[in-house]
Amino acid sequence: MRSLFIVSLPRSMSSIAFQLARAALPLASPAWVSDGEVLNVERYAHYGSLETERSTRFLLRERDAGRFTHLHNFLDDVTKPGGFIYKDVLQPFVLAEWQGLARFNVLRIERDVADVAYAMLRQNWTFPRYAAREAKWTQPLSFCQTLLCRVAKRSLPWQFFWTNRALEDAVIEGLLRAERALASIPARVLDYEHLVHDENSLHQVFAALYPNVKISVPDYLDEKFLARRERILKRRATPRYRALQKRIEEIRATM
Asked: Closest by alpha carbon to 7, among 70, 61, 79?
């Protein structure tokens, strides 16, 4: 049975989709990494560091051709075209140019970049800046600031999270470039909105990818999921979200 590769931007419910795929399909996950993220060293079973942003993410060929090729060779070595499920949200440009991906069934989850940028900036996850056209290596918040953000993010003023316009623009640009790279991958596409509102949408995608396999997707729209979904969707009515949308379209127009 052909292996499945799930790709998306970060914060697009890809981990939940991965777990549901594990339950619905007779495919295994590589035992040495969690959630099938074979390009994320911080997911490796033997990785013990708690530090962040040490691994290479959103790598571009033009920035480091040698390492880019190395990751392609790594994927050739560690992935199997049959019997497994894999996932990636950290190396969209590497995946888009990896010829070996043609051996897999691919599911791409699409989520609005404004949603993704909002969620990532709120967490101070700024690594998409590495893919900005100009090397804007503006430093993100310190470790202590990041920790404070995560502990008290619901009570702190928004100005605390977005204190650097150049950094924010670089994150947005990196996400937009990644969105374009992912869109170039031949794949079965599932919209995030369908995924979080209709359990049957995932069943339909799996059935299209594996037409001769009996599919049984577990129920996941439970009370806890729905409460979290409503909290996330309420963000779209905030002034900060609307301002972020506007900035994204301005940057998109320059690309």
From this structure: 79
**pTM of the entire predicted model:** 0.87
> Which of the two residues, 19 and 133, has the higher pLDDT score?
19
For 173-222, write each residue's pLDDT tens digit. Answer: 999 999 999 999 999 999 999 999 999 999 999 999 999 999 999 999 99
CA gap 203, 214 in Å, rounded: 10
Burial group, residue 157, by CB count within 10 angstroms (0-12, 13-18, 19+): exposed
Compute the distance between CA of residue 164 and CA of residue 176 in angstroms, rounded to an integer. Answer: 19
- Looking at the domain covering 4-253, what would its CATH class be? alpha beta
**Residue 11 to residues 89, 93, 115, 122, Cα–Cα distance (Å):** 9, 17, 8, 12
Per-residue pLDDT reduced to its tens digit, 83-95:
999 999 999 999 9
Tokens 């439970």 correspond to what residue?
A: 222
> Hey, how many other C-beta atoms are within 10 angstroms of the C-beta on 233?
13
Domains of the chain: which residue ranges?
4-253
